[in-house]
Design brief:
single chain
């Protein structure tokens, strides 16, 4: 908790400095400072405070950047996360849908202008990031529907997220196998993106597994949870909480198969 307090003091000083420098909430740096304050508050479990910070951050970013700027979407996603933590599900869905609309607009732009942007590495990276952002938002929307026990809706949303993530999992595998494809993306950036993609996909698979468990579809629960477990083992130690969660889900599903005994554990 002390580390969070220290981090908040630093970001609050930055916020005050930026606000004074730019004469109010009229610069995107102010929005970035507010967003960072919200992130710390979210990690500290101060969800109501985080909610206010992300509201302000999304407002400032919307006013000082283009309405479809990726940073606006990022703040809206965090705003939705804060709503979700406070069990305000309708508000969470609204925030996530606004972020999804921005991600779709960015994807549509780069898809429709592929011939003009193909030679730009920066544009290619932004297109990729918009797709991965869309997958994250879909996963978050699925989580809200899961909490509302709307399992069919959450399942279709998780599957839509995975459809996007699986494209990049394939790219990650190709890069590791050295298939002769040359990437213009710096290795450090590519490495971070690989880790993030594997992490996000494993979480989404685990969430999908939970849906199958709730629907008592034990066979499908085992399949997707084992895939999640395999991905997680590539980036985490076996005792990491996320890996342990997947292991528990697999064991629980197996224990409910016809004819299963305690030996399944």
């Amino acid at each position: 908790q002390g580390q969070f307090d220290e981090a908040l003091k630093i970001f609050q000083k930055i916020y005050k400095s930026q606000k004074q420098k730019h004469g109010g909430d009229t610069h995107y740096h102010v929005g970035s400072a507010l967003h960072n304050i919200g992130v710390v508050q979210l990690w500290a479990g101060r969800f109501k405070e985080a909610l206010q910070s992300f509201r302000s951050a999304s407002r400032v970013r919307f006013q000082t950047l283009k309405s479809d700027h990726p940073d606006v979407a990022v703040s809206l996603i965090k705003l939705g996360t804060a709503f979700f933590a406070l069990n305000q599900y309708s508000e969470a869905i609204e925030s996530f849908n606004r972020a999804l609309k921005i991600a779709n607009a960015i994807i549509s732009f780069y898809t429709n202008n592929a011939s003009h942007t193909a030679n730009s590495n920066n544009n290619h990276c932004q297109h990729q990031q918009a797709l991965l952002t869309k997958a994250k938002v879909l996963n978050n929307i699925g989580c809200v529907h899961f909490q509302k026990r709307q399992y069919s809706v959450s399942m279709s949303t998780f599957l839509a997220a995975l459809e996007i993530q699986r494209q990049w999992l394939g790219d990650c595998a190709d890069a590791r196998e050295g298939d002769g494809v040359v990437s213009n993306t710096p290795s450090s950036t590519r490495g971070r993106r690989e880790f993030s993609t594997v992490f996000d996909a494993s979480i989404c698979l685990n969430n999908l597994g939970r849906v199958y468990i709730e629907m008592k579809d034990w066979d499908m629960a085992i399949v997707v949870c084992e895939e999640a477990h395999e991905l997680q083992r590539n980036v985490f130690q076996r005792r990491h909480p996320i890996v342990v969660m997947s292991t528990c889900n697999i064991k629980y599903a197996k224990s409910n198969l016809p004819g299963a005994t305690i030996a399944a554990f």
